Amino acid sequence: MSKSNAELPQGFYRITILIGLGFFTMGLMDPLYDTYVPIFLEDFLSSRFLIGAIMTLDNLLALFLIPIVSNLSDNTHSPIGRRMPWILVTVPLSGIFFALLPYGALPSGSLVLLIVLIFVLNLAKQAARGPVVALMPDTIPGEFRSEANGVINTMGAIAAIVGTIVLAPLMDLDVFLPVIGSVRRRLPFLISGVLVIVATILLFTFVRESKEAKEKRERTPLMKSLRLVFGGEDRSAMLILLSLFCWFLGYQGVLPFMGIYSRQVLGVSEGLAGLSPGAVAIGYMLLAIPSGIIAHRFGRRRVIRFGLVGIVIALLLMFVHEPLTRLAGLPPFTAWVIFLGLLFVFGMCWGSVITNSFPMLWQMAHFGNMGIYTGLYYFFSQGAAITSPPISGGFIDIFSFFFGGTVGLRMIFLYAAVMMFVAFTIMGRVTGGEAHQPAAGGIPDSDG
């Protein structure tokens, strides 16, 4: 149990909410991207394996860009700080190309155009992610980062709710606007692009990086930090990275196919299909801040493992949901509402895991290599995002061939449950990263 009883710094929630504007931009784009890009691709491709493979293109960029840009931002010095120069360029570009994305899926578009837009969008978006995320631990002391991560993840979840609950149903809206023409399948992306740019302006206007971030300093050796993670006496950082690789294998095995599952198995429209990740986002939002506070009291590892157990149970219930509701003779709408409830529980547990995993890694870093640890987190999570969709897509194709499309699509939940259980097992061996513990290897923690 954590022994830290220190009070939150003055102005903690105000500055954390403002920093969370960066997370807001990611939370707005990611669920719409994950839900509708597979549907766009399905207009050109019939193989779920190929769709899953193309969905890994963005993650392949992230695998290299996030660690590289995060490390570069660690060693950037400018009058506006070390993260902000990267944010001001990459985040607005992300908004612009996100707005253009559905144009590749129009009748006048093509598979090649769609893939090009996906590539350019993610070139900007994945380059932005590291500096956006590292801005928080640069500012917040180590013992309060679970609470802060809960706040900024809540901002991301609010954005996901805006994207999925408010904007996603607009995919079905077919009206004509000046200059734009018909907005069907485009309006949520256009609105999101504008909101991303507005959020960037607000972030730059109200958030000022610390004086230390604006000063030139000695470059932090990348290899020294890597040796600390993988070769030190305390293997906690390495175990956390392996564990998060497994739970992202599970998460990314389900996420790209959720829109297709909702449409083909549950029988909902494209607009309503976007409510599936919205239910996850609502659960995520409600428990993100409380889970950070609970972790401060009872321990981050304990909260993460409890969340992983909840996720496994929710996924197993999703696996049997379709046959059980069909045997019970429930109306399709009732079955869909029950499924959304399971996704809501999944989201609460997922929020508990994500809120506390990043702070465990940051607890082992110092100001000079915070971006490197941030990059390692994304290297492993994006590695899982690259690996998992083709695997789960392959399971869908194989089981669909032998047992039908419904059974094939249901297999993603069983696959994800197994990966989450493996992550739970690995986390049991982690000993470091708690709020009251010093940084690994005797590295002094940031004091903000």
What would you say this structure looks like, in words?
- This protein has 448 residues and is mostly helical.
- It has a single domain, classed as Growth Hormone, Chain: A.
- Helix content is 73%, strand content 1%.
- The chain is built from 16 helices and 2 strands.
- The protein has a two-stranded antiparallel sheet.
- A hairpin with a 3-residue loop joins strand 1 and strand 2.
- The longest helix is centred in the C-terminal third of the chain and has 34 residues, at 370-403.
How many domains would you count in the coordinates?
Answer: 1
> What is the overall shape?
globular
Number of helices: 16
Kindly provide the radius of gyration, computed on alpha-carbon positions and rounded to a whole number of angstroms.
21 Å
